[in-house]
Design brief:
- The chain is an alpha/beta fold.
- It has two domains: 4-168, VC0802-like, CATH 3.30.2130.30; 181-399, HUPs (Rossmann fold, 3-Layer(aba) Sandwich), CATH 3.40.50.620.
- 38% of the residues lie in helices and 20% in strands.
- The chain is built from 14 helices and 15 strands.
- Strands 1, 2, 3, 4, 5, 6, 7, 8 and 9 form a nine-stranded mixed β-sheet that branches. A six-stranded mixed β-sheet has the order 14-13-10-11-12-15, with helices on both faces.
- Helix 3 (84-96) crosses helix 4 (123-137) and helix 5 runs parallel beside helix 6.
């Protein structure tokens, strides 16, 4: 019955003269995610995108499009001639095929929109006439304009009419790639993948940066991060993962720096290395999973001292979020079950018993006095290895790769 899917966007419609550029990026992202179905095509119509199924089943296409940032809702539609008889027949099919909630009753209403002003009937008249058509053919149904069990939507356009009765929620946000490229400090924990997902939702293309301290951290810990990068790629289309060999840096910190300031110095070194990678890759900002006050390195004093080593903007999407809210979001996007696997990253291995929660800049600089900072940063950046993850379709990435 359904031969098209309408994809609606939200914020893009407010972009004024730049709207066309956002639409082009969204269309390209949709085409990329629909590549497994060569017959499916995407075109732009007024205020939305139209997906031409060309015989492809609705369900797999819907599942793929629900992960495309920039789309706020989706509807499977039947396109018919702009004729009241054809529209009425399609409306009957929508009502007959609707899945009713328990106890909702057999009630419906029709909402019509006449985009083509040449059509002889105005929108309210279309709704009344189509509603009457349905009532004449479905005797067990009645009209309820306030709380109907089914709403039939009719859009009359120049090239025909769209008739549908379902709206599925989309991922929302802005199309990935419309806000530039950023570097995500990706650990194996709960927070940083969620931060990366939120950055992608705001249109940023994410390149993940992971600090791996083998043999202090195991290969299983790295595999866990690779799975997280794959899950993000399943949302964003592609994620480059930069694996930084951090063992020498961490060993030097343990040898030369006061234990209480070890985490502060470690984070400063991570930022320095990430900034070098960002410069080489043309990344415009760093993204972290830090939440204010959650751990010793995330107090305002610590954040200020850590930020001091770079000039690059640092985006912290979770800065005001509670842990419970972050965990809920992680479950929703599919990263939680992987994040809680018991493989530690370098941020959790050498946590001191009494870390400095409010370090000063002078203390941090003094703690680094015996570190060969520039050599360590350069060597770590030069030894960084890059892997690339592409989106998969029909796969729950959160249940694959690490067990």
């Amino acid at each position: 019955m359904f031969d098209h899917i309408i994809a609606r966007y939200g914020e893009i419609g407010l972009k004024g003269h730049n709207r066309s550029e956002f639409e082009k990026i969204l269309a390209a992202n949709m085409c990329r995610c629909l590549a497994p179905w060569p017959g499916v095509k995407v075109s732009r119509i007024e205020g939305r995108m139209l997906v031409h199924l060309n015989g492809t089943p609705v369900e797999p296409v819907r599942d793929a499009l629900e992960r495309v940032f920039g789309i706020v809702s989706l509807s499977p539609v039947e396109r018919v001639p702009a004729d009241l008889e054809a529209i009425g027949q399609a409306a009957v099919r929508v009502v007959n095929g609707a899945e009713l909630a328990p106890g909702s009753g057999h009630t419906f209403k029709v909402e019509a929109k006449r985009a083509d002003k040449r059509f002889p009937f105005p929108s309210p008249d279309i709704a009344r006439r189509v509603g009457a058509y349905v009532l004449r053919r479905l005797k067990d149904w009645s009209v309820d304009v306030h709380q109907p069990a089914v709403t039939v939507f009719v859009e009359v356009r120049e090239d025909g009419a769209f008739v549908y009765g379902t709206r599925w929620p989309g991922a929302g946000g802005l199309p990935v790639g419309s806000s530039g490229r950023v570097g995500l400090l990706l650990s194996g924990g709960i927070d940083s993948p969620v931060a990366g997902w939120l950055a992608m939702k705001r249109g940023a293309e994410v390149e993940a940066i992971h600090f791996h301290s083998y043999p202090f951290t195991s290969e299983r810990a790295l595999q866990k991060v690779q799975v997280l990068a794959q899950i993000l790629a399943d949302w964003g289309g592609r994620v480059h993962l930069h694996v930084v060999h951090f063992t020498d840096v961490q060993t030097a910190i343990r040898k030369h720096c006061p234990e209480a300031l070890g985490i502060t110095v470690m984070r400063r070194m991570m930022f320095r290395i990430a900034a070098v990678i960002a410069e080489r890759r043309g990344l415009l900002a760093l993204v972290t999973g830090e939440s204010l006050g959650q751990v010793a390195s995330q107090t305002l004093e610590s954040l200020r001292v850590i930020n001091d080593v770079i000039r690059l903007p640092v985006l912290r999407p979770l800065i005001a979020e509670d842990k419970v809210d972050i965990m809920r979001r992680a479950r929703e996007i599919g990263t939680y079950e992987t994040s809680i696997l018991p493989y530690e990253d370098c941020c959790t291995l050498f946590v001191p018993k009494n870390p400095r929660t409010r370090p000063s800049l002078a203390e941090a600089e003094k703690a680094e006095r015996d570190l060969a900072v520039e050599d360590l940063v350069r060597q770590a950046a030069d030894r960084t290895e890059m892997q690339t993850f592409h989106a998969r379709r029909g796969v729950d990435a959160g249940l694959n790769g690490v067990s």
